[in-house]
Amino acid sequence: MVISYYGGEFFKVSFGDTTLAFNPISKDSKLKGTRFGSDIALVSMHHPDMDGVDQVAHGDRQPFVVDGPGEYEVKKTFIRGFATRSQFGVSKEKEERQNTMFLVQLEGMHLCFLGALSSKELPKEAVAVMDTVDVLFIPIGGSGVLTASEAHSLAVEIEPALVIPMHYQTTEAGGDMGEKDALKKFLKEEGADVKPIEKLTIKKKDLEGKEGEVVVLAG
Predict the structure, then answer these.
(1) Fold designation for 2-214
(2) Which of 129, 144, 167, 183 could pair covalently with 87 via S-S, beta carbons 3.0-4.6 A apart?
(3) How far is CA 85 from the centre of its chain?
(4) What is the pTM for the complete model shown?
């Protein structure tokens, strides 16, 4: 499995002949996105920073779109979506929008993608079926999603093998994605001193013995 990051909450996950796109940045976003063909596009929230499905369609490769709660099986990829709440992109302090967190099983590995989650309280039905999480994608930027401190606390509860932070400001992506220095604050909370890498290539056996190891991908 190869995981690449394009800023915001936009990830490309490739395994074999299958490509997944998580929260692709749309052309209407202030964030700088990219284009590629995908087989499956997972959209946790309908917001310009996260629902650019047309950006991950190329030629004959038109993605199967999962943009809400439910259970799905596509190309040997098993997906479960659970409704959560988010305050990202809202105009009033107490206003909320629906966000979908995804549990994805592929190649014998379990991914947990939290999207624009703003509360540490996960749906009971999601917790009940959550197996061992191999890779956790977690927002850390505050301003409508989890803060660095809240993200650290939730990551400790979930106990994944790997933690990949997302939804924070990057120079390359541009735009305004969360609070300043959110990544620095999150790494301090985690007690981690890691440098960004271009992409992550992993196999199930590579995860043996890992407990909450933080991986920062260059976006």
Answers:
(1) Metallo-beta-lactamase; Chain A (3.60.15)
(2) 144
(3) 15
(4) 0.95
